[in-house]
Specification:
CATH class of the largest domain: Alpha Beta
CATH superfamily of the largest domain: HUPs
Number of helices: 20
Number of domains: 4
Strand content: 15-25%
Strand order of the largest sheet: 2-1-22-23-15
Largest sheet: 5 strands, parallel
Shape: elongated
Structural class: alpha/beta
């Protein structure tokens, strides 16, 4: 075979592995089970370097465990990615002059499922190029009936256990995505803004005022109070008095609150309960009314008077100008601070009051904290990180104003409950299908379903259970749960990992996985995340086309230390891939020397008296022992480094060179060591090792070969 990489060869070899069923788990096997759960990539996601590394790690462990005589289930799946998928489709529809409103829900969903199939066809091939030995016939999609059944069961249980409620509360709202999102679905961008110091006159006083610092003068229209820090040296004398809102001229109460930071601004806060989470809590405690100066489209409301209907930035400028004309601005400073943005579309997030569904999380978190110690974390500090988060958890907003996702399985009788009130004494039902029975007062034809869908993480959090058929007691659930190995990037530790832990424990009293591996984030040389907007991304498929799958995988393992971020670039990756391509060529040359240049009069026994044979076998045994230990600790970067050094420097540079003077006698030792090398390297370089294994005259795939042991 030519030294350069041949995509066709790898594709045919991969297909032959699938055809032989080498990746298929068998629930009836007498072998001990070992299960690995693939994080479901987003349906509209593209394969990036981090995904490729994640899959290379999963595949290496799966292949090792097969060689160690386990019945291995490496289960793949795909997430429907509610917000991201819907946003992508809506942009396509807009180019065609269509929209959700024009199509209606039914027609839009028809188009969505068609688009899903189109995306999946191109998407799926990209996920197999790394050589992932997944059990593809068992692949799960988060909107398929099996998962839908699990999601409904979870919702029904939460309802029966009084853990679900619906109400109008402050949420983080993305105006562009048009839905509520979780705090942990936000990113923060450093922005330079203006900090306005605004004077609020004291009612019935000619010259007294309280000065307040804010970056958001456009929300002053919705101010309903002023809170000052405890024992404020300047403003304490105004307690229990009222101030005048400089824009609306309404009188608003002044009070103390310990949550006001005396160090920020002047030590006094304007309280806008409808547009800030802290203000909402303070306002609730002080019985303040909730007003809205900004709506869900990110524009100002009628409350903003002549500024109504404006985008926020424009309204901010005009509000500041109006305050300046009124003589209400004391000073303006430059101010740099972190502004929350939606992680998907990068739009500035608006805290707003919205009626949403919530799950009470404290009971789930308490159970999670009690049992999290049963999981082995890599690195270990993630146990404390997740525990700390659970100790300070807040209720989970699970409803999303979307159409793509699991629709909330709640039905309201429009005859008896036209305002869709929620409660066990209300005319509503929890049902997956439209209820056939009448409501309590006898109406049977007036059921309508809740318009919203469930948060994507509501289904993804059930991934360890739903993929195996829960709530049914399936053979797969009994055999492969809890999962032996799970892997994730640290950035979704709260969104996904913590929720899987809490939900699995709540529903089954069992941890979802035994070993939780957090790989580091691959960043550019400046420490930034790879992104399209920065143009710093590296396409793993391009690396594979240039250097081959095995070389690309080996380069990725060098970044696979648990929890350790890595910095790289296209040039750095090319150099590392080239090095491992050369390593692969070295291995081919070794195999050619051992197999094709084998002398006719070779000895069939290893010379137990020869010091060179003794030395290389001792080094081989040491390598087997060390590599196996590295793998058991999931330190694949050390395992591949150990193998590289043994193959190139000890076996090739030293032993093979010495063996040339006694070639016939050394042949059996050369063959034995090559055999072990190929088996040790197979989990990391599956294509090349299979090729050379065949050249050694082996009939069965190296996938079925036993893992080498020290003895």
């Amino acid at each position: 075979m030519d030294k350069t990489h041949h995509t066709d060869y790898e594709g045919k070899l991969y297909s032959s592995w699938e055809k032989e069923g080498l990746f298929t788990a068998n629930p009836n096997s007498e072998k001990p089970p070992y299960s690995l759960l693939m994080p479901p990539p987003n349906l509209t996601g593209e394969l990036h370097l981090g995904h490729a590394m994640q899959h290379a790690i999963l595949d290496a462990i799966a292949r090792i465990k097969r060689m160690q005589e386990f019945d291995v289930l490496l289960l793949p799946g795909v997430d429907h990615a509610g917000i991201q998928f819907e946003g992508t489709l809506d942009r396509i529809l807009a180019k065609e002059g269509l929209s959700k409103q024009k199509l209606g829900r039914e027609k839009w969903l028809e188009r969505a499922w068609k688009f899903k199939e189109e995306v999946y066809q191109s998407f799926h091939k990209a996920w197999t190029v790394i050589g992932l030995s997944a059990d593809w016939p068992k692949e799960v999609f988060t909107l398929e009936p099996k998962v839908e059944k699990a999601v409904f069961e979870q919702f029904k249980r939460f309802w029966d256990q009084d853990l679900l409620y619906k109400g109008a509360y402050i949420v983080q709202w993305c105006p562009k995505c048009g839905t509520a999102i979780e705090d942990i679905e936000m990113e923060y961008e450093e922005r330079k803004q203006k900090l306005y110091y605004i004077n609020y006159p004291i009612q019935d006083s000619e010259s007294a005022y309280i000065t307040i610092a804010t970056t958001r003068p456009e929300t002053i229209y919705a101010d309903t109070g002023i809170a000052i820090s405890l024992n404020h040296p300047r403003f304490k004398k105004y307690l229990d008095k009222k101030a005048i809102n400089p824009l609306t001229k309404d009188s608003i109460p002044i009070f103390e609150d310990k949550r006001v930071e005396p160090e920020f601004g002047t030590g006094a806060l304007k309280i806008t309960p409808g547009h800030d989470p802290l203000d909402y809590e303070i306002g609730k405690n002080h019985n303040l009314p909730i007003l809205h100066a900004i709506d869900k489209t990110g524009r100002t409301t009628e409350l903003a008077q002549e500024l109504a209907g404006m985008k926020i930035e424009g309204a901010r400028e005009l509000a500041a100008k109006k305050l300046e004309e009124l003589g209400a601005i004391e000073k303006i400073e430059d101010y740099t601070h972190a502004v929350p943005v939606c992680e998907r579309c990068k739009t500035t997030v608006e805290p707003l009051i919205s009626e949403e569904w919530f799950v009470k999380m404290q009971p789930l978190a308490e159970k999670g904290i009690l049992n999290i110690g049963q999981i082995n974390f890599y690195p270990t500090n993630y146990k404390k990180i997740l525990t700390d988060w659970m100790e300070n958890i807040h209720d989970w907003s699970i409803s999303r104003s979307l159409w793509w996702g699991h629709r909330i399985p709640v039905w309201y009788c429009q005859k008896c409950n036209p305002q869709n009130k929620v409660g066990k004494n209300k005319e509503m039902l929890i049902s997956l299908e439209k209820p056939e029975k009448p409501c309590k007062t006898g109406h049977s034809h007036y059921w309508i379903q809740d318009e919203q869908v469930l948060d994507t993480w509501f289904s993804s959090g059930l991934w360890p259970l739903s993929t195996l058929g829960w709530p049914e007691k399936t053979k797969e659930l009994e055999r492969y749960f809890p999962w032996d190995f799970e892997i994730s990037a640290g950035e979704i530790k709260y969104l996904w990992i913590a929720r899987m832990i809490m939900l699995s424990l709540w529903h089954t009293d069992t941890i979802p996985f035994k070993h939780m591996f957090f790989h580091g984030m691959l960043r550019d040389l400046q420490g930034r995340k790879f992104s399209k907007s920065l143009g710093n991304g590296i396409d793993p498929q391009e690396l594979i086309k240039t250097w081959g799958t095995d070389a690309t995988r080996m380069a990725l393992y060098t970044y696979s230390a648990p929890g350790r971020d890595g910095r790289t670039s296209k040039s750095v990756m090319d150099n590392r891939c080239k090095n491992f391509r050369n390593f692969g060529n070295k291995l081919r040359n070794i195999a050619k020397f051992v197999i094709e240049l084998k002398p006719e009069n070779s000895s069939k026994k290893i010379s137990v008296k020869n010091k060179d044979d003794q030395w290389i076998l001792k080094e081989l045994h040491s390598t087997i022992e060390q590599v196996t230990k590295n793998i058991e600790k999931f330190e694949l970067h050390l395992a591949t480094e150990e193998l590289y050094n043994f193959v190139w420097h000890k076996f090739a540079d030293i032993y093979i060179e010495k063996s040339k003077s006694r070639r016939p006698e050394a042949q059996s030792c050369l063959t034995l060591v090559l055999d072990s090398i190929l088996r040790l390297l197979h989990p990391f370089m599956p294509f090349l090792t299979e090729e050379l294994w065949t050249k050694m005259g082996k009939e069965e795939s190296i996938t079925l070969a036993p893992w080498p042991t020290k003895t």
